[in-house]
Design brief:
Blueprint lengths: L1 E5 L4 H8 L6 E5 L9 H11 L3 E4 L13 H20 L4 E7 L22 H14 L5 E5 L2 E2 L6 H14 L4 E4 L3 E2 L2 E2 H17 L6 E3 L6 E2 H14 L9 E4 L19 H7 L6 H18 L1
Parallel strand pairs: 1-2, 1-3, 3-4, 4-5, 5-10, 6-9, 7-12
Antiparallel strand pairs: 8-11
Helix pairs in contact: 1-6, 2-3, 3-4, 5-7, 7-9
The structure holds NADP nicotinamide-adenine-dinucleotide phosphate (NAP).
Length: 299
């Protein structure tokens, strides 16, 4: 079975390539080779390769910039996605489209189910939701939503926080981190595994379910996440000492894009469907930090 992965220089794309499964022919393309702003290039590439599945990890993920760069955001996250969905469905191929917790408005008090009402608060969320609708217009396509994605490489909160801890401690500065946005981190290693398992399972037995959720287990805040990153990084010798952190509210940390105050995803249906248990977010953080130190050691 041939699988095309887009956005292979990104966090999830690179992890999917790293975690390649035996007996699958995996073709990974980066932004130069498969640019979602170049619809014709995407269409031709897909028709040329005719993969059975496409995992679209490519996206415009700069949430604040998306408020300003509207056309680019919607072209990449919605209309480009439709090009993939439509083209692969023309020969019976299928799309696994990666989406986000930011399709929700955060007004719920319990974790979001796949069919809960969507009401994005920002342009990034709007564009990703449109990408979902446009994918599901074509038969066989699936949506996998995730939240607070991070891994041992790439641009993410955990690695940024590691640096901040390092520098803030040296300069005796206090970090200020938002404590009133709740959700759950998702590590790329577990998420890549879920993508592969979902494709295998769906190829054998098409389920009625079209939208899946996956994150690590538990609910936390950015403040707790930042605190734990410092604590474990110190334990593993990745930093000399964790910096002090002061919890602040979202209203004291102004950003262009509004973010939901609560965006934990209920992943029970996915967990049951695949027979895979979620990993507690603290355990997953330890694994990612170990993997990060291993990568650093090899450099
Ligand atoms: N990161 C999160 O916290 C988070 C949370 C929930 C859901 N998600 C979703 O999960 C998926 C994977 O996220 P990620 O964190 O792995 O993202 P990422 O690290 O930002 O990777 C996305 C990749 O897409 C590429 N890209 C940008 N514009 C493109 C274009 N026009 N054509 C083709 N590729 C383009 C990027 O290249 P450049 O970097 O060179 O622009 C990058 O390599 C995305 O669909 C995202 O929306 C992410």
């Amino acid at each position: 079975m041939r699988i095309l992965i887009t956005g292979v220089d990104g966090q999830l794309g690179s992890q999917l390539v790293k975690n390649q499964q035996p007996n699958l022919e995996v073709i990974g393309l980066n932004k130069n080779q498969f640019n979602l702003l170049n619809f014709e290039q995407c269409r031709k590439t897909i028709l040329n390769l005719k993969p059975e599945w496409i995992i679209n990890t490519a996206a415009f993920t700069a949430v604040d910039k998306a408020e300003i760069e509207l056309k680019k955001t919607f072209d990449i996250n919605a209309f480009g996605v439709e090009v993939i969905a439509k083209t692969c469905s023309s020969y019976g191929g299928r799309l696994l489209q990666i989406s986000t917790d930011f399709v929700f408005d955060g007004m719920k008090k319990t974790p979001y189910l796949p069919h809960d009402k969507c009401n994005p608060l920002n342009k990034y969320g709007e564009s990703k939701l449109k990408g979902e609708y446009l994918s599901l217009k074509y038969p066989g396509n699936l949506i996998l939503r995730t939240s607070w994605l991070y891994g041992p490489s790439g641009n993410n909160f955990c690695l940024k926080m590691l640096n901040l801890h390092k520098n803030a401690f040296k300069q005796s500065k206090i970090l200020k981190i938002v404590h009133d946005q709740k959700g759950c981190p998702s590590d790329t290693i577990q998420l890549a595994k879920i993508c592969w398992e979902l494709i295998k399972k769906e190829t054998d037995t098409k389920s009625k379910q079209k939208i899946f959720h996956w994150s690590n287990k538990g609910i936390t805040t950015w403040y707790d996440f930042a605190f734990s990153i410092g604590k474990f990084a110190e334990e593993y010798g990745l930093i000399e000492k964790a910096a002090d952190i002061q919890p602040i509210s979202s209203s004291d940390y102004k950003t262009l894009a509004k973010r939901p105050n609560f965006s934990a995803l209920d992943c029970n249906q996915t967990s049951r469907f695949l027979g895979i248990k979620q990993l507690e977010w603290t355990e997953s953080l330890k694994l990612i930090l170990k993997e990060y130190s291993e990568i650093k050691r090899k450099l």
